[in-house]
Amino acid sequence: MENIETTAAIIFSVFTGIVIIFQGCLAAGAPWGAASMGGKYPGKYPSRMRLIAVMNMVILGFMAAVVLSEAKVLFPGLNSISHIGIWVIVVFFILGTIMNTITPSKIERIWAPVAFIQLIASLIVAIS
Question: Could you list the residue range(s) of the whole structural domain that residue 119 is in?
Fold first, then answer.
């Protein structure tokens, strides 16, 4: 049976994958801008924001890799940075949970529980 750290890292990665798919859809022109960035760009993202969505995908993928490395699930080569990186990720998702809770965009608030799950999962990995 998997330990809690492994399970938390997998949960984190699954939810991060969902956000990566969402960002990919934004980058591809899906009209979901109201559910991101405080709803500042309703409809399709402008070109500059599509590039930012792609960058978000890369950053989120790296975060998942760091969490998986810290949990010793995958990516042992990242272990040298994962001990510090995991705490950066925890802080990021504390802020992300807060921001997605207080956003002026009502639809964007759907991301608050996702960010909270990512926060709890990354915290479990950090303290395990």
Answer: 1-127
Q: Using CA atoms, how far apart are residues 7 and 55, in angstroms rounded to an integer?
A: 27
DSSP-derived 3-state class of residue 128: coil
pTM of model > 0.90: yes
Query: Could you read off the pLDDT tens digit of each residue along the chain, which spans 128 residues?
Result: 469 999 999 999 999 999 999 999 999 999 999 999 999 999 999 999 999 999 999 999 999 999 999 999 999 889 899 999 999 999 999 999 999 999 999 999 999 999 999 999 999 999 99
Q: Give how many domains the chain has, as a whole number.
A: 1
Residues across the chain = 128
Non-local (6+) Cβ contacts of 78 within 8 A are 65, 66, 69, 85
CA distances from 126 to 19, 25, 33, 51 (A): 21, 30, 32, 31
User: What is the maximal distance between C-alpha atoms in the chain?
Assistant: 46
CA distance 61 to 84: 17
Rounded to whole angstroms, the Cα distance separating 15 from 95 reads 17
